Structure formats: structure tokens, C-alpha cells
Amino acid sequence: MTPIAQLGGKAEGARLARVEASPQFADGKFRNNVPTRSGLSLSAFPRVAVAAFTGGEQRRPHQPIPVLDPGTGDAEGLHITWYGHSTALIEIEGHRILLDPVWSERCSPTRFAGPRRMHRAPVELAELPALDAVVISHDHYDHLDMETVQTLATLQENVVFAVPLGVGAHLERWGVPAGRIAELDWNENTRVGAIELIATPARHFSGRGLSRDETLWASWVIKGPSRRVFYSGDTGYFPGFAGIGAEHGPFDATLVQVGMYGVEWPDIHMFPEDGVATHVDVRGGVMIPVHWGTFELAPHRWSEPVDRAWREAKARDVRLVVPRPGERIDIDCPPEIDPWWQQIA
């Protein structure tokens, strides 16, 4: 498909009616439930532009990032495999849930420009085990990848795509049958087997191309009969996390965004210390930091997010696990931290 197809679709008909009826939708756009600045001020552009073209060596590792073969295993208990950035496989009580899958070389509408991967995907899409659901947090290119979605829809004939309101129009534009899309507003749920998937609030924005905030963004609760996982998606810190913890927690594990932050956009991407606070707010057990180490999307040093998250986790007595891409973590027996990223920084 062309870069135009990468833009996805627009909500129409019954989908548009659902969008317009959402409490999060007003004046033609989705809104956060707390005041949020989601763009750069004009005065900030020069500083960000300078940062974007300096310190390049620090924003990428000097040596290859170690990538492991996840191997195979049954889906019983609770295991989490981080594939890089925000892509992760959750194996929970006999079910497999894939988060924000991005397998393309670039998170961009084109193959020829845009942020490029720092490491290969640990496994080919065709080698993934049978999935029950693919969960999408929002429609930015580093979370919703057209080619990956199309391939998964073909290879995984029974998989359900759970997405926030409006995002289903993108998937249908790319050929995913409507009957395989579960499109949710905040605090709505769908089920795949014994697993309940709940779209919960986040503090972010959306858009592909020139569109802005026409689709919803979300964090997610993955709830089994006895095990629970929380995924933050992309978000700024806000009081709603405590409410999620009170209603749906405690969680055996959390996957929390800690990277791609900047002083110019604190409302939409958390600093690592905020990520640890979010884990505490939702009443998490084991914390796995995500949204770092794969794509260069912010001016900070590539490994800084986990250094800061580790320091804050120790200060707050949080059990942190920092897997290598492809490393399968048994949440009931999590490994001690091996600071592998410091060895290649």
C-alpha cells in the first residue's frame, strides 16, 4: 500500500456515532480528562531542533543491543516477553495477548525515512505462537504499524484486535474484517476466552498525518481469572492511575512507559520517575519498563530511561525487571537485574 494508505481510515456511520457519543469527545476531537498540552510551543522549537541534531552518539548504543530468542513455552501462569519499544507478548492463564506490535524497520509512513530500529525484532511474525488478541493503545506510528497489522490479520486468522474508539477505521481500511475488531471507549471491555480486556484512561493524544485527536488513546487492563496485568500505553502522569489501581488492581505485573520524554512535553510522555509512581499507583507487583531502547524519538541518551527508572525503583522498593529484547520473564520468578544496557552504552 502507499503512504496514503498508512494514514488509515476515518470514522463513518455507526462508528462515527459511537465516537461522537463518547464522554471523551467534544468539538470534533477526543480530550483528556485533565488539562493537557500535547504540542510544542513556538518558542520551544529552536531548542528541540538543536537537541535533535546534537548528541547523536549518545542516543544510540555503540555496540549491538543483545537480542534473545524467546523460544517456546506454554501460556499457563504469567509470562511476559518484551520484543522492544512497547511491543510485548503477555502469556496469561492459557491465553496470549500481543501489545502494540511494530515489526517494521521504521516507525514511519514510509520505508525510506523516519526513526529506524536499533535492534532487530527477536522473532519473525510468522514464528509467533497462536494469539488470542492484539491490543493497540493508540494510532501513532510507533504503536500502530500498518504492515504488521496486515500480516498478523493474515497469519492469525482468529485473533481479535482490541483498540480504542476510532482506531477500528484504520484497521478496516487495511483489510481487517470488522467482526475481528473490538473497539472500546474508556472503561469498556471485551473478552477473549477467559481474559477480560478493559480500555482504561491515559493522558496522551493521537493522529496519523495531519489528523489530530480523531481517535482515542488508552491504557489497558488484562484480567484473567486470577492474574492481572496493566499496560500504560503512552501517557503523561495523572491522578487517574490511582483510580485504575483501586478499581482493577492489584496487578501481578505492569508494563509502563518510561522513555521518549522531554521537558517540552511532560503532559504526554512520563519521565521514568513518573513511570515508577504509576506502577505504585495502580498497585503493581513486578514492573517492566517499556517505550525505550528500540527507536530514537527523543533527545535523551538512549539508555537513560532505565537508569533513572532503576534508581527510582530502588528508592521506592519497587521490583523492577529490565529484560533484553526477546527475553521471556516468568513473573512468579523474576530475575534480578543484570544491567546489560550499561555494558553497551
Q: Main β-sheet: number of strands, strand sense, barrel status?
A: 7 strands, mixed
- Please give the radius of gyration in angstroms: 19 Å
**Mean pLDDT across residues:** 93
Helix and strand succession?
A: HHEEHEEEEHEHEEEEEHEHEHEEH
Overall geometry comes to globular
The percentage helix is 10-25%
CATH superfamily: Ribonuclease Z/Hydroxyacylglutathione hydrolase-like
Which assembly state applies to the chains in this document? single chain
Number of helices: 9
- The fraction of residues assigned to DSSP E strands is 15-25%
CATH class: Alpha Beta
Strand order of the largest sheet: 8-7-6-5-4-3-16
Helix/strand-derived category reads alpha/beta
How many beta strands in the DSSP annotation? Answer: 16
Q: How many distinct domains?
A: 1
The CATH topology label is Metallo-beta-lactamase, Chain A
> Unreliable runs, pLDDT <50, ≥5 residues?
40-53
Structural write-up:
It contains 9 helices and 16 strands. With 345 residues, the chain is of the alpha/beta class. A 7-stranded mixed sheet has the order 8-7-6-5-4-3-16, with no helix packed on it. The chain has one domain: Ribonuclease Z/Hydroxyacylglutathione hydrolase-like (Metallo-beta-lactamase, Chain A, 4-Layer Sandwich), CATH 3.60.15.10. Helix 6 (240-248) runs parallel beside helix 7 and helix 7 (272-281) crosses helix 8. The longest helix is centred in the C-terminal third of the chain and has 12 residues, at 304-315.
